[in-house]
Design a protein that fits this description.
By secondary structure, the chain is an alpha/beta fold. It contains 13 helices and seven strands. It is 53% helix and 13% strand. The protein has a seven-stranded mixed β-sheet with strand order 3-2-1-4-6-5-7, with helices on both faces. The termini are far apart.
Amino acid sequence: MKKPTAANANPRPTRAARDRAPSGKIHPVIIYPFKHAGHFEDLESLYQMVARLAADKSRYARPLTVVDRKTHYQLERDQAFERFRNQVMAKHSDIIDAWCVDTCQMWYTGLGRAFESGGENDIYWLIPGDFNYGTAVGQEVLGRLHDLPEIIEELDQDLCIGEIATDHNNSKQHIDTYGTFALLYNWFPDEAQEIRQFTERPRSEFFAIRHGFLREVLTHRWYPYEQTVVMLLLAVLNKKRISRFDVGHISDLPTGRDLLPSAMQQVERTERVVKSLWRERHHTNPDWLSQYRHLEVQSDQVRRTALGILQNLLA
């Protein structure tokens, strides 16, 4: 496996690398926010970036936007939403309307549709729609976000994870430190160490993935939540090439942090996913059940500890 090198520092490719003809197309897949923010400033900025990039049809495939039907019905009488949908979203992307359990199922729908129209050398770029792109910091991030999928091509990677910048008091960092990684170290200790070499954000919504690896991921069991963790585990287990892209200081938290019920849910979902993955990989071993029971007891302790810490930090 290729260890993290210059990719961790947001490499700026040489002119020769940028000017050479691309070997495949980049497929942007935008995930429309489940919950509407009440304004369109952030989404306007995002689609301005999408429109600029998509104008280069030799480089980019027609973007896709996935909209959950629950969101549609919440906003069906909102004239501002209808105008934005018809005049901006539909102009700059193909819209996929789908009933989805959670955001990761929206990823499955969008990435699957893009994959079916793609080719062997193509790259698929997931773009979450619920970040504060309309701010000065958000505008700066949008100006260089296209580097994320380009890293896949220029450094010959299979997966590139975008990592948002946070301080030590950020709720996302608390959830990943005391919940996500603690659980990964319990169930997949060797793989957790590998993952942490690449990223501190194993649940990131920013990533790009190569066609061949996406095929493997799509045909594997897909989870409607915490799918980035699954992809990272599969990438490490199958010796794929991974890079990190530093997204910058950008946020999708309207209140500035996750509320305690949301944080608890994220930890509990992660535990369910990693337990299921462990069973999938080990259930054919003769003594798998006794190993599972032992790890399950430890996992329960890890989860309880994580929830207690998060209660102290977020309540």
